[in-house]
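Support request from a user on the community tier.

User writes: "When I paste my structure tokens into the form, the page sometimes reloads and wipes my input. The last time it worked, I copied everything first. Here is what I submitted, just in case something in the input itself triggers the reload:"
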């Protein structure tokens, strides 16, 4: 992440500092992209992908919005906006509970990380792709998209970044790491200062 210019509010600078050097699972790759400019006066956006055995299994975005004046619908001066996309097995498309299960990944990740989050909301979308004609031999695919946003109750957004990275990993099918266990990998990715 780039250095903060002098006119950046102290709370936003503290939030950015909490993201620097934050470790995620070794399968998660992060890069900074331009943040939205019209939604809030200050923003940061990260793009992520989860790679397992050389294959991309999930992608997403993590956006931090900050309006020092606050926004009523946010119930605060920060908003975390996330997106996760993953391809699932075609058999899951017919499962009526898929949306409910995917949304519990969001709420359970927030709860287990014990991050302060209020005004949580979002959508879960699934798209079944079936191929015909010359593409008939292409297997059916289900794309899952989870959009979730919440208002952090403090400026420690590093923990919120970990929630999102875990959500991408879960959607991609990686097993969760047991409590208190950190995956070791010399290629481990961190958010750069």
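"...and here is what came back when it finally went through:"
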């Amino acid at each position: 992440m780039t250095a903060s210019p002098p006119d950046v509010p102290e709370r936003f600078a503290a939030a950015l500092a909490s993201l620097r050097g934050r470790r995620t699972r070794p399968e998660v790759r992060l890069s900074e992209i331009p943040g939205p400019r019209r939604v809030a006066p200050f923003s940061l956006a990260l793009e992520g992908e989860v790679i397992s055995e050389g294959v991309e299994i999930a992608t997403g975005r993590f956006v931090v919005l900050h309006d020092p004046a606050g926004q009523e619908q946010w119930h605060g001066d920060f908003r975390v906006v996330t997106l996760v996309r993953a391809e699932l097995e075609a058999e899951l498309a017919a499962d009526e509970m898929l949306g409910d299960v995917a949304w519990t990944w969001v709420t359970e990740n927030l709860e287990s990380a014990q991050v302060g989050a209020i005004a949580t909301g979002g959508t879960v979308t699934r798209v079944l792709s079936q191929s015909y004609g010359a593409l008939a031999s292409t297997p059916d695919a289900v794309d899952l998209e989870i959009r979730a946003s919440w208002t952090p109750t403090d400026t420690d957004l590093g923990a919120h970044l970990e929630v999102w990275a875990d959500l991408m990993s879960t959607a991609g099918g990686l097993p969760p790491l047991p409590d208190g266990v950190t995956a070791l990998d010399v290629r481990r990715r961190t958010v750069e200062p």
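Agent notes: The reload is a front-end session timeout and is unrelated to the input. The first strand starts at residue 28 and ends at 33. The helical segments are 10-19, 98-113, 158-171. Escalated to web team.
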